[in-house]
Amino acid sequence: MNVDRWLDDRIGRLRGNPVADRIMYSASWFGDDGRGWIAASAVRSLRTPAPAHTFLRHLAWLGIESAVVNGPAKGAVRRERPAHDRAHPHKLRRPGNSSFPSGHAASAATMATLLSEDGLAPLWWAIALTVSASRVYVGVHHSSDVLGGLAIGTAIGLAARRIDLPLPVPGPGDR
Fold it and tell me: Contact at 8 Å (CB) between 82 and 140?
């Protein structure tokens, strides 16, 4: 039995629990199109010396992550998604592109890395790992897709900490 199947079986034992279902489907929705991360960045950016610059920087790196993962990364692998015949208890967007790597996990890791720059790393990583695990829970990714997404997203987030993008919004030292 491979690791993906082993983990899916373990997670499958939790499926159908109303509390777990609500948490995991909500976490999956939070990650759809980066909506939750964009909102988190908007709120978190307000606590920085240059909120517009910080928010735009986060959006730019989220866009870079999405372009890398949903373009060449998924295109190179073209892995089929898990096949589940069960009904979903909550609304779920079912993606049609390659399963590997998980875009939700990649964006979660990218944003957790960036949002953790000025504190609260345990909070951001707890959210990121919940969003990532939710993708296996709801049955749209294999666990290895999520691990690959976390690795790629962390790498992009760490690169973002070192690379200054030429952004049109002034930073703290540009006044």
Answer: yes
For residue range 38-47, list pLDDT tens digits in order.
Answer: 999 999 999 9
Using H for helix, E for strand and C for coil, what is the string for the chain?
A: CCHHHHHHHHHHCCCCCHHHHHHHHHHHHHHHHHHHHHHHHHHHHCCCCCHHHHHHHHHHHHHHHHHHHHHHHHHHHCCCCCCCCCCCCCCCCCCCCCCCCCHHHHHHHHHHHHHHHHCCHHHHHHHHHHHHHHHHHCCCCCHHHHHHHHHHHHHHHHHHHHCCCCCCCCCCCCC
**CB atoms < 10 A from the CB of 130, how many?**
18
Please say whether the beta carbons of 112 and 68 come within 8 A. Answer: no
Which token pair is 96? Answer: 């049609």
Range of 128's domain?
Answer: 37-78+98-168
Tally the domains of the chain. 1
**Tens-digit pLDDT profile for residues 74-106:** 788 877 877 765 666 556 666 666 778 999 999
Q: What is the pTM of this model?
A: 0.88
